[in-house]
Amino acid sequence: MTTIVFFEPDGTRREVEANPGESLMEVAVRHGVEGVDADCGGVCACATCHGHIDPAFFGRLLAMNDTEDAMLELVEDQRAANSRLLCQIQVGPELDGIVIKLPGVRR
Ligand code: FES
Fold it and tell me: Where do the 2Fe-2S ferredoxin-type domain residues begin and end (predicted)?
């Protein structure tokens, strides 16, 4: 098991367990974490799974593709240098202890 720490939009800390191979979005939804709506079901078409990744882990992630980069423009006002869409990141042991701050879904 891999431990993932989410900070919900109101600052609530949620420490949850993740299974290898599931996406960070799936982890958040499975545990009912607030701030991840995942409207598109994980096909990189909504940006409602936006999170700010712990800088200590950011460099361990696979680079984002052009589609994810374009989708992040939907949350331009919340976007930061460490922004990613959580449906595009697969859980592996290298992410144990990662911290993700959720800015909240914009409509
Ligand atoms: S769940 Fe829609 S972009 Fe990630």
Answer: 2-106
pLDDT digits (tens, 9 = 90+) for 58-79: 999 999 999 999 999 999 999 9
pLDDT for position 107:
62
Determine whether 49 is exposed, middle or buried from the number of CB atoms within 10 Å of its CB (0-12, 13-18, 19+). buried
Query: Which two tokens mark 51?
Result: 């999170």
Report d(CA 58, CA 95) in Å as an integer: 10
User: What separation in Å is there between the alpha carbon of 31 and the centre of ligand 1?
Assistant: 17
* Domain residue ranges in the chain: 2-101
CATH superfamily of 2-101: Beta-grasp domain (3.10.20.30)
Nearest to residue 88, comparing CAs of 54, 40, 31? 40
Q: Which atom of ligand 1 is nearest to the CA of 87?
A: 4
